[in-house]
Design goal:
The chain has 368 residues and is an alpha+beta fold. It has nine helices and 16 strands.
Length: 368
């Protein structure tokens, strides 16, 4: 005799099976960062593509995207869609903040740290501007290398840390993190490009000992809205590190090295994370067939191997659209920063200001 399953339990089991299937199937999360439109009929969409919500997806081409307006597929020949270099509209900086307190300089860790930092800046410097600053027990940071794209100056500046002697051997970790964030923002604010993204990477071998700033005050600054487009990462080395405290600093990712021999591996992993994060940004430009009124745009990303897809949706107004002149999809965009999604923390479709946007995730989905 076969056992009987109650209807309520049958429904519950079916729901669990569906949730399990959805979790396993995965998909792409496409998150709008910003968009713009301009006469004659140019449309630009700046967005990120991730596997799920954490793993960046790089290497997609214009042919991997389908554009729909009001649920109708826009011909690629009519739209002349292209992927522009994100650098035409966005700038990315990484600030490496290194702990040069007495526990580092007096324990023989400086050489291993410098070698690891050199490898890190060499990799990240190929993608964005890098600046290096140091902290010890003093209130202010110590500039090592200002933000630059010149690799030679970064390498030379880092060599100077091999002979660094802390005037105050204590550890002003909390204050150093806050000062580094402010320095990163000040440097980015000088850029003329409309989209600005910063990454702070902190290396430390211990906890805050100077007590110049409380842990809560640091966390309050780290979570301030003005740093919404910043990633904060941390590398910890040694037995003194507490993972919970390290995550206060590296809220977007941490790496722990149990000893000096593993410091370079930790730096290399962080460099790979930043590289992947940088390449998940896409700037799609196309010529809209619309000429008037409000329209719903759907941008669908399709990865071929493995076969996965995801999409975002938003609305734009095409009043006054139409040639002359002819639309040039290679023209640079003009973004409005009043409505920007935070790609480092936003979930599907989450937006920081009042813009009608949706995002969806699917595996092997076809056109809507």
């Amino acid at each position: 005799m076969r056992p009987t399953i109650a209807p309520s339990r049958r429904i519950l089991l079916a729901a669990i099976a569906l949730l399990t299937l959805a979790g396993c199937s995965g998909g792409l999360t496409v998150t709008r960062v910003n968009s713009a439109q301009r006469k004659p009929n140019n449309v630009w969409v700046f967005f990120t593509v991730d596997k799920g919500r954490k793993d960046p997806v790089a290497g997609l081409t214009a042919d991997d995207f389908a554009i729909y307006e009001d649920d109708g597929l826009v011909s690629k020949f009519e739209s002349k869609q292209t992927i522009q270099n994100p650098e035409v509209a966005a700038v990315m900086y990484t600030l490496l903040l290194v702990d040069m307190s007495g526990s580092v300089t007096e324990s023989g860790q400086a050489d291993a740290l410098v070698d690891a930092a050199k490898s890190f800046t060499d990799k990240v410097g190929k993608l964005q501007k890098v600046g290096v600053y140091a902290f010890d027990g003093e209130e202010k940071l110590h500039p090592v290398v200002p933000f630059t794209e010149a690799q030679g100056s970064v390498q030379g500046g880092l060599d100077g840390l091999r002979r660094y002697k802390a005037k105050d051997p204590s550890t002003n970790l909390h204050g150093g993190v806050v000062e580094a964030l402010r320095e990163l923002k000040t440097s980015l604010d000088k850029e003329n490009k409309p989209l600005k993204f910063g990454t702070l990477v902190v290396f430390t071998d211990g906890t805050d000992r100077a007590a110049r700033m409380s842990r809560e005050d640091m966390k309050r600054e780290v979570n301030d809205y003005k740093y919404q487009n910043y990633e904060m990462l941390a590398i910890g080395v040694g037995a003194e590190i507490e993972k919970a405290h390290l995550e206060d600093v590296g809220k977007d990712g941490t790496e722990l090295a149990s000893d000096q021999a593993k410091v370079k591996d930790a730096f290399d992993k962080m460099a790979a994370k930043i590289e992947a994060h940088t390449k998940r940004f896409y700037l799609l430009s196309y010529c809209s067939p619309a000429r008037k009124g409000e329209h719903l745009v759907r941008i669908e990303a399709n990865r071929r191997d493995p076969k996965e897809s995801g999409a975002l949706e938003y609305k734009f107004i095409a009043d006054g659209f139409g040639p002359p002149p002819d639309c040039d999809p290679s023209a640079p965009p003009t973004f409005d920063m009043k409505a920007v999604t935070d790609p480092t923390t936003a979930g599907a479709g989450s937006v920081k200001a009042g813009v009608d946007v949706k995002a969806s995730v699917s595996a092997g989905a076809g056109p809507k």
